[in-house]
UniProtKB/TrEMBL annotation:
Low complexity composition bias: residue spans: 208-217
Domain C-CAP/cofactor C-like: from-to ranges: 306-440
Feature: compositional bias, Pro residues: 218-230
One Pfam short name: CAP_N
Ranges where the record places region Disordered: 204-245
Record keywords: Cell membrane, Membrane
Protein name: Adenylyl cyclase-associated protein
Membrane topology: Peripheral membrane protein
GO biological process: one example: actin filament organization
GO CC, any one term: cytoplasm
Species name: Sinocyclocheilus grahami
SUPFAM superfamilies for this protein: C-terminal domain of adenylylcyclase associated protein, N-terminal domain of adenylylcyclase associated protein, CAP
Length: 462
């Protein structure tokens, strides 16, 4: 089945090439007319028939939500290829037309991320999260002058979840391990592709006609040419949705009816997590916003959801708690886990000995627990406090700004692993019962010792 899926993917690539060669309109220049596919489009086809096809085959073999998610990813890669064909045959258009060309791919990126949010209870949630966190890498076509490093940053954002997949399936099912390898290799090879063909940004033709939206992605009419409404009326039914979508983006740019627009496009989908949309704003910064902006943008809609504190199978779900002080989980068992999601200005106490605790997208949350035999994970949080009353072997802090960890005497041997985080402090108890606060290093020095790289934390006096 996996081999068949890979073959189907390669056939789809071949069909895409034939369609590009037979196309005679919509940005098609001399190359398109002569049936020649540009060097960098052919190189992108190799990416599609290689790691993307392998990822597709394994996703279909795993099935379930991973397969459904993959269908959206296939659309995203196909739309990116269409854009590359247009760029190879056309000169770079105005910002408004470029926004129109990017809109369909932007929409699919949003759908990929929305799929993950709608399936948080999925047993394959870590797979979905790895894809959702890194799919904005396809926005490299709107990034300049460093699209390659941006893809690397998005690839790193998925590492937390790919590591969890590896941890869960390393000894159970090697197919999931192969899935991680194939998926990660997509972004690794994409970086090499960008470095070779689009080092400082998407390469446009210097000789073809200026690209237009008519032959590719439908768009709102540009300000100059008349009569745009007539042209839009000739679009097919499938194009009208994207046209309305782009018209919405245009209204957001003008600053008018912004509240109405946000019903369809949330704040987080317009900035850091979807850089394609940045192109419509003109002279915006070329780099992505910091990760700290992501939880803040995503927090607003969650407040309308009802608070949850319940045991679902072996998982204690604590979600959407606002100002809830005194939350207690007491009837625990060793095989149970606690997952706290989007809890703000609250306190949570976990009694007894359990397997693991995860804090995800929480702000100003206080966690007190007794014993954890696995790991305590803090991800995408801000200003949280974690206090250990008993023992815990490992605490992981990822993409978090502001985290205070209070250790007990029995947990002083705990390993604290951190990445992409700031303002971290560990407090250790003294003999008199008071705590000594020690900051976790955020700055490091790396040197070559002749055979390997040696990295040490730097201490700054002050």
């Amino acid at each position: 089945m996996a081999e068949l899926a890979g073959l189907v993917q390669r056939l789809e690539v071949a069909v895409g090439r034939l369609e590009a060669m037979s196309s005679s309109g919509g940005g098609g220049g001399p190359a398109a007319a002569s049936g020649v596919v540009s060097v960098y489009v052919e190189a992108y086809d190799n990416l599609l028939s290689g790691p993307v096809a392998q990822y597709t085959a394994l996703s279909q073999k795993i099935g379930g939500d991973v397969q459904k998610h993959n269908e959206l990813m296939k659309q995203a890669f196909s739309l990116q290829r269409q854009l590359l064909v247009t760029a190879s045959n056309s000169q770079k258009p105005s910002d408004s037309v470029l926004t129109s060309l990017l809109a369909p791919m932007s929409k699919v990126i949003q759908e990929v991320q929305a799929f993950r949010e709608k399936n948080r209870s999925s047993p394959l949630f870590n797979h979905l999260s790895a894809v959702s966190e890194s799919v904005p890498a396809l926005g490299w076509v709107a990034m300049a002058p460093k699209p390659g490093p941006y893809v690397k940053e998005m690839q790193d954002a998925a590492m937390f979840y790919t590591n969890r997949v590896l941890k869960d399936y390393k000894e159970k099912d090697k197919m999931h391990v192969e899935w991680v390898s194939a998926y990660v290799s997509i972004w690794t090879e994409l970086q090499a592709y960008i470095k070779q063909h689009h080092t400082t940004g998407l390469s446009w033709s210097q000789t073809g006609p200026v690209a237009s939206a008519s032959g590719g992605a439908p768009a709102p009419p540009p300000p100059g040419p008349p009569p745009p409404p007539m042209d839009l009326g000739k679009s097919s039914g499938g194009d009208s949705g994207a046209t309305n979508h782009n018209a919405l983006f245009a209204s957001i740019n003008k600053g008018a009816d912004i509240t109405k627009g946000l019903k369809h496009v949330s704040d987080n989908q317009k900035t850091h997590k979807n850089p394609v949309l940045k192109a419509q704003g003109g002279p915006l910064p070329s780099g992505p916003k910091p990760f700290a902006a992501w939880p803040t943008a995503a927090a607003s809609p969650a407040r309308t959801l009802p608070p949850v504190l319940e045991l679902d199978g072996k998982k204690w779900k604590v979600e959407n708690q606002e100002g809830a002080h005194g939350l207690v989980i007491s009837d625990t068992e060793l095989k149970q886990v606690v997952y706290a999601f989007k809890c703000n200005n609250s306190t949570l106490q976990v009694k007894g000995k359990i397997n693991s605790i995860t804090l995800d997208n929480c702000k100003k949350l206080g966690l007190v627990f007794e014993d954890v035999v696995g790991i305590v994970e803090v991800i995408n949080c801000k200003d949280v406090k974690v206090q250990v009353m008993g023992k815990v072997p490992t605490i992981s802090i990822n993409k978090t700004d502001g985290c205070h960890v209070y250790l007990s005497k029995d947990s002083l041997s705990c390993e604290i692993v951190s990445a992409k985080s700031s303002e971290m402090n560990v407090l250790v108890p003294n003999k008199d019962g008071e705590y000594t606060e020690i900051p976790v290093p955020e700055q490091f020095k790396t040197v070559w010792d002749g055979s390997k790289l040696v990295t040490t934390a730097t201490e700054i006096a002050g």
